[in-house]
Amino acid sequence: MIANELCNCNILRNSSSKITSIYDKALSHTGVKVTQYGLLKYVYLLKSPNLSQLSAALYQDRSTLGRNIRILERMKLVSINAGIDKRQVQIELTNYGVFTLKEARKAWELVQKKIELKLGKKKQEQLIEILKNIEAIELKL
Amino acid sequence: MIANELCNCNILRNSSSKITSIYDKALSHTGVKVTQYGLLKYVYLLKSPNLSQLSAALYQDRSTLGRNIRILERMKLVSINAGIDKRQVQIELTNYGVFTLKEARKAWELVQKKIELKLGKKKQEQLIEILKNIEAIELKL
DNA sequence: AAATAAAATGAGTATATACCCATAGTATGA
DNA sequence: TCATACTATGGGTATATACTCATTTTATTT
Description:
Two copies of one chain form a homodimer.
Chain A: H1 8-27, H2 34-45, H3 51-58, H4 62-74, E1 78-82, E2 89-93, H5 95-119, H6 121-136
Antiparallel strand pairs in A: 1-2
Chain A binds a DNA duplex through α1 and α4.
């Protein structure tokens, strides 16, 4: 009665997990994981944002972001300071954070290219297109 | 110097997260999340497996499985008993677990169909194909 | 049979994630 | 200006996940 059809959700979860571990291994010598690289990148791109700005840019929960950022702080990659508005925290890359971001960027470029080669340009583009579709889905539930 | 190109890994992570929350909402009235539904389904399909069998079927870490199964045990959805080989634990669905699995299955079918409609058959198939490619990737790192 | 190897699991530790609620600070409207 | 509403964040709690190491049991090899 219950068969084992492919679940869109679980195949995506599995692929996501698999590719995350590939990227993590490719970045491992830099000391950061691909998720942390993403965070550092946005702190850089948004030029010392506060948590709400970061979480809006990353479409992630603020408290999640807060926790993840505090890990980067422990790792001396970012500093967290009170903003002029004292409710806010201003997040800045440390020098070590900038250095690490650049190293991670090099490693990221390599693994990204390798994946693109393995997958081929056409499938790569199809994937992006389909995932955009998925992220745009709003089901009435 | 550091631009914001699309990262295969992060777009997959985001899509995975997004679609997980869609499935979770669709299943919410059954009391289980889509990941837990997947676990229940495999306990059913594998007919009271032990942890190693489950983790092999799901390509997941054994200790992860152990923790997730103990959550299902707390929820009275499965029972965990010692096997004949006393190292093993035998995992069985309770009656409530079977009932919940069936309810979750109905909800899963609905949301799965809705997603397929939104996405279209062609993209659906492309997605599966591409994700299989990704899961098969073995980079020498 | 005794020693050793292998298998199954659990526990410790850690990250990533989200939800809800409390609190502190700021802005706004009467 | 004072009460109220809004904003930014932190903390509690919970799930999902993986890695490493210890322990218990079983299997294998002298």
